[in-house]
Amino acid sequence: MSHYIELVKFDSPVNLKIFENENTLASFPHFHKEVEIIYVKKGCVNIAYQNEMMVLHESEMIIFPSGATHAFLSSPDSVRYVYQFDLAIFDEKLLGVSQLHLIQLFDHAQVDSKNWSDELVQIVSDLLDKLFQTTLVPTISVHYLQLGYLMQLMGIFLEQLPQEATEKKAGHHAELKYKEDLVLLNQIFSYIETHFQEDITLDAISALVGFSPYYFTRFFKKHIGQTFIQFLNDYRLEQARYILSQERLPMVAVAEKSGFSSVKTFHHVFKKSQGISPLQYQKHINDQ
């Protein structure tokens, strides 16, 4: 299982990573500081984002804002291009647009290309195809081309990316700007990843990073936007949703594997979050 927080390693001095994610059938929930775009070239991909499941078909795209938690489950023959880039690429002093403005642009955007105009879909898909082509035959001009296409992409998004009609709750991780905070959070999430099936106390997780419970609570809420207990429950719910979509197990086993202390607690927390029972959720996923 990969770390819940992903520290992206760029393969370009432009702070850009592009790769073809072919025949990888699933990912566990994760997030990173970088903006990510998934562009489906073949097949379909089921996306878990903001407690919802959505399906992307061929030629469709989705944008994950900085710090947005997401996961996917794809069809066996799917092919998709993945683009990850740091908003620091776009120099504030040179371009006159603050990084905070760009963060907010994506935080409040209609991220699914189904909600975009036909013109925007065509322009963005053309630019993404050109970006991907730069990885196939590297030349002396490749980084100039990548930066140019990214600048065009951001310009188009600033002008045409539709925004949500109502303001969203602030993104949980939009303030993750410093690598030292990411390293601390990586320790926390790594611990959750390997111990979520156990009873994790606030004292134990605070001691892990050398904080008092009081300071840890403030640190976690500042960066994640919710309490540690709320986050832990959400993480366990993500595990449960993944298990329900992949395996046929008794609900007692699903509760145990996803870290809930009892099937009663699991059923209560799941229904409160999803509005339906775990069994109903599993049936809905299987019927799609």
TrEMBL record:
GO terms for molecular function: DNA-binding transcription factor activity; sequence-specific DNA binding. Residues 186-284 form the HTH araC/xylS-type domain. Keywords: DNA-binding, Transcription, Transcription regulation. It holds the Pfam family AraC_binding. InterPro entries: AraC-bd, Homeodomain-like_sf, HTH_AraC, HTH_AraC-typ_CS, RmlC-like_jellyroll, RmlC_Cupin_sf. It comes from the Bacteria. This is AraC-type DNA-binding protein. It comes from Pseudolactococcus chungangensis CAU 28 = DSM 22330.
